[in-house]
Queue: 2 jobs
Job 1
Amino acid sequence: MNKVIEKLIALNDIDAMLKDAESEEYKRLGFQTKEQCIENLKKMRDEIAASIPKSILRRYEKLKKKYGRGIAPVVNNICTNCFMQMPTEVASKTDKNEKVETCENCGIIIYWT
Ligand SMILES: [Zn+2]
């Protein structure tokens, strides 16, 4: 798999964790643990983000604002963000996950499972 895609997936996971960590229910962990956790996640996020090409990172951030995430897996040829079926010519490509691609319908960055 393309390294940038791997990093985007990791970034997406961290963003989801940060969202959880900043939510109310996370408070049961106690303040110290929570603060430490968020600090570590943010540090990790910065490191990963710094290694992603700027134009792709910008696109990811824009998508995140719009959809709550910047990348989505394609499962059974269906985009899990908008639930549109991928066109046959896209679904039959042999170089899947080798470069950063977007869903033709919703524009989210996609990867193939
Ligand atoms: Zn889509």
Job 2
Amino acid sequence: MAQAKILAICGSLRKASFNRRILAFAVQGAREAGGEVEECDLDLPLYNGDIEAQGLPPKVVALRDKIAAADGLLIAAPENNHGLSAALKNAIDWASRPPSVWPGKVAASCGATSGLFGTVRASIQLRTTLAAVQVTLLPQHVWVSQVHKKFDDQEKFGDTEAIQKLKELGALLVKTVGVTAVAVAS
Ligand SMILES: Cc1cc2nc3c(=O)[nH]c(=O)nc-3n(C[C@H](O)[C@H](O)[C@H](O)COP(=O)(O)O)c2cc1C
């Protein structure tokens, strides 16, 4: 099989996002497993049917094209008020508009919060929403609680167990995408 194409999606727009930083370990795992990983920009206009009726904004088209071209999705889902971040939900909504680019994709997720429950609640919403758009989300959500306490003064992430799990998550996605592609082809 050709190299698995993975799209890394960070649900936080913040440059110094903890979610972006933990996603990097999953990306590393995916690359080490042979995947080709691309990143994307979720800084999109808010979904509005009137904007859509005038034609999709270029950033939305770019995101939709990247999702369509990907075999697998590596998603970092922050938790805002016990739910998905607006940026991530907005991107899922834009890309679901007909013709939706989501059906048949396989995804793996992780998330980091400053709180004690490390995106567990947001991960449940993510699973529900991805099911609605026909994306298969692997069961292994990797979550990191109290993430702000796990970076040292040099901004180095010290949770070695989480790093290992994140790398394994990226590798698992690449492996699963390969198996799915073989199953679909035969
Ligand atoms: C609007 C808002 C809502 C939040 N809600 C939660 C929450 O429900 N649970 C939680 O653990 N942390 C919550 N947080 C704290 C975030 O986990 C924390 O800011 C985290 O660093 C955000 O991810 P990022 O660093 O990737 O941007 C919230 C933060 C914001 C800005």
